[in-house]
Amino acid sequence: MCGKVVSIVMGSESDLAVMQAAADVLRDFDVGYEMRILSAHRVPDVVAKFASDAPSRGIKVVIAGAGWAAHLAGAIAAHATIPVIGVPIDSSPLNGWDALLSTVQMPPGVPVATVSVGKGGAKNAAYLAIEILALADDKLRERLQKFRQKMRESVLAGDSKIQRQFAGEV
Amino acid sequence: MCGKVVSIVMGSESDLAVMQAAADVLRDFDVGYEMRILSAHRVPDVVAKFASDAPSRGIKVVIAGAGWAAHLAGAIAAHATIPVIGVPIDSSPLNGWDALLSTVQMPPGVPVATVSVGKGGAKNAAYLAIEILALADDKLRERLQKFRQKMRESVLAGDSKIQRQFAGEV
Amino acid sequence: MCGKVVSIVMGSESDLAVMQAAADVLRDFDVGYEMRILSAHRVPDVVAKFASDAPSRGIKVVIAGAGWAAHLAGAIAAHATIPVIGVPIDSSPLNGWDALLSTVQMPPGVPVATVSVGKGGAKNAAYLAIEILALADDKLRERLQKFRQKMRESVLAGDSKIQRQFAGEV
Amino acid sequence: MCGKVVSIVMGSESDLAVMQAAADVLRDFDVGYEMRILSAHRVPDVVAKFASDAPSRGIKVVIAGAGWAAHLAGAIAAHATIPVIGVPIDSSPLNGWDALLSTVQMPPGVPVATVSVGKGGAKNAAYLAIEILALADDKLRERLQKFRQKMRESVLAGDSKIQRQFAGEV
Amino acid sequence: MCGKVVSIVMGSESDLAVMQAAADVLRDFDVGYEMRILSAHRVPDVVAKFASDAPSRGIKVVIAGAGWAAHLAGAIAAHATIPVIGVPIDSSPLNGWDALLSTVQMPPGVPVATVSVGKGGAKNAAYLAIEILALADDKLRERLQKFRQKMRESVLAGDSKIQRQFAGEV
Amino acid sequence: MCGKVVSIVMGSESDLAVMQAAADVLRDFDVGYEMRILSAHRVPDVVAKFASDAPSRGIKVVIAGAGWAAHLAGAIAAHATIPVIGVPIDSSPLNGWDALLSTVQMPPGVPVATVSVGKGGAKNAAYLAIEILALADDKLRERLQKFRQKMRESVLAGDSKIQRQFAGEV
Amino acid sequence: MCGKVVSIVMGSESDLAVMQAAADVLRDFDVGYEMRILSAHRVPDVVAKFASDAPSRGIKVVIAGAGWAAHLAGAIAAHATIPVIGVPIDSSPLNGWDALLSTVQMPPGVPVATVSVGKGGAKNAAYLAIEILALADDKLRERLQKFRQKMRESVLAGDSKIQRQFAGEV
Amino acid sequence: MCGKVVSIVMGSESDLAVMQAAADVLRDFDVGYEMRILSAHRVPDVVAKFASDAPSRGIKVVIAGAGWAAHLAGAIAAHATIPVIGVPIDSSPLNGWDALLSTVQMPPGVPVATVSVGKGGAKNAAYLAIEILALADDKLRERLQKFRQKMRESVLAGDSKIQRQFAGEV
């Protein structure tokens, strides 16, 4: 898929440690992406413009990661009708419960596709974006299936290894 | 205090049952207020304009009530430097935990003055607004002190009554 | 969009009261859908077959709603590489916390796009499905924009009404 | 703003690590403040006297930070009609949930303006105090707007930097 | 035990429905008690005076019930060195979690003996008060043992009944 | 399976409404059971004796249901080395969270097999007991497989019905 | 107070790091205490005997600390009519929520006086025990008042120090 | 008990640090076990086959440990009628709450015997498996009783030691 079709947005520079994981997955799948720092509370007008313009710039899916009262994904969703994926980040003392609820509990009409908390969620946001893009891109779907196959083989290899390791137990 | 100096904003018409309690308190104190329905997710640009214009219209404090992933207070705070008071409303299946965390856990630089969940919080939002306004309005402070006095007398009356009611015990 | 492109799946008949809301939204957008009752724990092989066959039957997005330890969306996601949207349903004594965490906290590699708890979430699942489908369907995107516009007008109408209603205040 | 107009109060010496952040913000804005250690449970009469006397000493806003069953902000609010801002501190094993609920869930009539948990909340308490003071101080409002502008520029700079950093990705 | 030795205090009249249960237990044990409505936030000075004077009036144990950010028990404990028992009341939308944490999580030096949430807790507060009083009152201890004996017999009777009821089961 | 091999124990008569569901399942499978009311806190010695004697009376599995600080299952497990299944009951204001944690979080060495909260859990306790008994009873395993088959058919029937009901949807 | 009148009991040796804090407080007040390791689940009969015999050995108050599904305090309370104070210990992955609920949510008739989670709670358990013992020991009450006085002075000293430290602020 | 009768399954290699504790207990009891890595989401068909085949391979009890949205135990239970024991692992930022609810809240008909979170739970899963196997194996029951006896003696030894250590306290 040519061009930048996914926009990875995060609320602050400190979220990069988590959101890098989404970028790594997209790169592995040769999906073009851009990386942005935008804050729903500090540059709301830029977020609004970003969200409104994104489709015309070729962006098809937005991945937004934020911690605390994580409004970023919702604020983007409010201005766009392309899918917005939210990654709750556990950066506050409340272990991510605040970010999870702020991201997932969107009111009817303006959905955010929420994935799991933290780095695992950032990866899944990328996989979800790829699943969405693959609806119109057979090559991408093939890659996705290969990835699943590899994931499968990795589990099976781990299974074989642990079986051998404990084979002597009776 | 003449003119409309407080703006009570809510995310949807169904929140009126809760937010009316804030209006009732302000009316009791003869504080001018307006009542608005604005949604951070459904009319984000109107929220932005509302928040930017509010000071020039004479609004000094905003009270914003919302349920679910309650971004309304935060979205207003992002566009204004007047105090924004957030009322978390328990309208989702999660009993208000989602609205509480989405309202209170604002990142540094853009505070929301959060009060308790539900109708009790709506009342307290109004009292907090009055406390803020009273900093520049001695009459309002006097009224506030009278209200506290009345609240005090009401507790004392209840105390006397219950003491009498149980006086016969042993 | 002709044919059934969305599959709404639920864990038990009692979930229909919630999931009907997703169907209603899709019907309003003339998006073809099917309605299924499948349980990850009671008919796991049927779920597996359903998930594997769905793409070849033309299904592009699956919406899966379940309560308790809600594994349905995850079980479908495990067998498919099309997007799976999870609706946590608050049918247990724990108010939906169990369904929310069981749905959203998927491990890396197998994402579920989770939306809010209960009926509001069911609606949002449908809107999210439409956003995904609209990436390849300009008419659908137009409808989506019209819907957003209508939602906007409805909020503005409510705002006008409440402003008038409280206009007399001080 | 001349004189000490904000009082930063904390429950114990160990809270200074958190509450210092509020002081730093106020100093940056040239807002005069005092720093106090007062405990609702260990010196309740001093708290009562402090709260009653504060207005006559020129204090306009109180910022109170406490952990555990954090009653400090509420105890001050009970004796004063100036705005009291509460900072829940995550110093107990329960990660700040206890302090958050003890601070925010005040009963009707005696509000506490609660901000986020921990150091981020301490900063926001100061910003909220400044927003309140700025209602009667145009210079302070200007500074606040400059601060917001700087915060905005800092986000935009971060955004530019990260965009460049990932510019090569396709 | 002659005279009023237990003081049952509650935060508002609406708490009587719960706290009556404590009174009923004390009456059954012929323990003299008084019933008070006192609010830590609405009449803090009266609470302070009440707590300071209680011992000289012959009060040996205080039972304090409150909901929301339940500071009542803690505020009394701050002014007295007699045992204070706290009953968290589930009167807010948060189901009593706020009252529980606000009551139990007292900082070192000022303990509150917290019992379970709601009416069951009110009963247990009375039983705990009786256990404390019985340390210096053998008759009261005998009654307590008789009560335990009766409680035991009631369980055994229930057990016999249910065994018979289901005796026919294979 | 002849004789009473399962003992269903509950903490109080009011738990029968929930625990009856376990009895109904066992009766459907012709598994002999007894029904007991025993309280870890009110008749601890009877619980101890019950647990110690159970195996010699032919009891092979104990199902224990309780609410609040639900110690019943754990207290039985402390005195017996036969499997003890715990059913957390949502009878307190905390919606069953207290019973769930009190039942499941047993320290190493004394396990309780915990099932879901409330009536659904009571049913599952019975199914789990049957799975355990079936390890030594092929007929019981056959019945279990038939039950699973029926459960499966019931889901499939529901699925067929709902598919037809919504067949007309484009 | 001569002899050992308080028994500090803990569920396992690893709890000593927390419960030592209770012992330290009692030693400071010259209150005789014993230290025991007893487990409700591992030596239930010893717990039962301990609880039954405690009064005849002169024990007037029991302090019981435990983590996980903390049944220890409740199990002792079930066998004794002297006051039992429970200290929830945060030793499981759930941060003490399990121990808190298992300790405090006792059913009617068998109260446990619960204090805060962890080391702070262990101290408070000792202070509560001293408050109870002081009801019949004027010297102990005097010491308690002196301790409160010292605690007060320590806060005031901290307050003076911090005021001076920040005196230079505008 | 000869042959491999228990299967310990975990969701990923990183869970071995926790699940090893289950293996250690089984080895101490000379109970034959196998060790497997299987993921409900990454190799669902292998899980299904594993669960269906387990009984014919002589497996009598399955122990399944997983973190996050822990579906593994439930997925195995869906395909088998032998007892499945679930160990929730605290590997996500949410401290194990997600794994606990995903494991324990199974819908009626497909139970999972859930034990405590983390390594303590892994041990208890093994003890529970042994309790189940001991129903048909008197030697195993004897060993279980000896283990309980040893556990008892270890607590008593700790108790003696701590009593001596603090014997001098008066």
Walk me through the structure.
The structure is a homooctamer of 170-residue chains. A five-stranded parallel β-sheet of chain A has the order 2-1-3-4-5, with helices on both faces. The longest helix of chain A has 28 residues, at 138-165. The first copy, chain A, has helices spanning 16-28, 44-53, 72-79, 97-104, 119-134, 138-165, and strands spanning 6-10, 33-37, 61-66, 84-88, 113-114. Chain A is built from six helices and five strands, in the order E-H-E-H-E-H-E-H-E-H-H. Chain A has 170 residues and is α/β, with parallel strands linked by helices. Chains in contact: A-B, A-C, A-D, A-H, B-C, B-D, B-E, C-F, C-H, D-E, D-G, E-F, E-G, F-G, F-H, G-H. Chain A binds chain C through residues 60, 81-83, 85, 100, 104-117, 120, 123-125, 127-128, 131-132, 134-136, 141, 144-145, 147-148, 151, and chain C through 60, 81-83, 85, 100, 104-117, 120, 123-125, 127-128, 131-132, 134-136, 141, 144-145, 147-148, 151.
Characteristic key phrases:
five-stranded parallel β-sheet, 170 residues, 5 strands, homooctamer
Major sheet details of chain A: 5 strands, parallel
Provide mean pLDDT of chain A, rounded.
96
Question: How many individual β-strands of chain A?
Answer: 5
Query: In terms of structural class, how would the helical and strand content of chain A be classed?
Result: alpha/beta
The number of helical segments of chain A is: 6
Radius of gyration of chain A from the CA trace? 18 Å
Give the strand content of chain A. Answer: 5-15%
Helicity range of chain A: 40-55%
Inertia-based shape of chain A: globular
